[in-house]
Specification:
alpha+beta, DNA-binding, homodimer
DNA sequence: TATTGATATTGCACTATTACGATAAATATT
DNA sequence: AATATTTATCGTAATAGTGCAATATCAATA
């Protein structure tokens, strides 16, 4: 074994667990903190802000995006990330 | 690599992440659900309630206890688990 | 005290997560 | 078009988490 048995739990329990898991890493908490503070920013700012390499940050951003906590707008060369207020309400 | 670089983040960010991580598994959400519903119960009830083997449940209970979300009173042969209201307030 | 019952711990197999260098992809600039 | 800039993806090493059978522990009871 080794994999979480999600199918044995309710949708609501899985939904809460998924949201909680997304915030279960300090880097992702730090990203949310930062986005709350600056309202919206480009990805590069977050990479500068965090003590992690760019690919690692990109990976964390992807996870936050996948759980719907943040969204990203492509603006030419850069990507503007911001918190999805709807998702934030769930918390 | 592979381990979370906790030392690079603030205490608050790590504290939030630790709490969130504890709730980042549906089994642990289910345990909290159950304890909220019945107020307090003995460990065996949780094992019966969950679709997981006893050692696995015991492990999840340990994690919840370690993060301070629940507490356990030894009552003779059994252990009575209940939610720590103080910890719940943090959420 | 031998047995039963409840919970915890150990040991192990398996899967998932974290981190980062290298590199790709795509737009902007020269 | 060539180059620089920004972000994503790939590949991979290291660590962490999940689940369970077997077993240990410890109180209750026969």
């Amino acid at each position: 074994m080794g994999a979480t048995k999600r199918e044995h739990f309710t949708d609501k329990q899985n939904a809460i667990a998924t949201l909680a898991k997304a915030l279960g890493h300090p880097a992702r908490v730090a990203i949310m903190d930062y986005l709350l503070k600056v309202d919206a920013c480009i990805c590069g700012d977050i990479v500068t802000e965090l003590p992690l390499a760019q690919p690692t940050v990109s990976q964390h951003l992807k996870e936050l995006k996948n759980t719907g906590l943040i969204k990203g707008n492509i603006e030419g060369n850069t990507i503007c990330y911001f918190i999805d207020e709807k998702a934030l309400d769930k918390l």
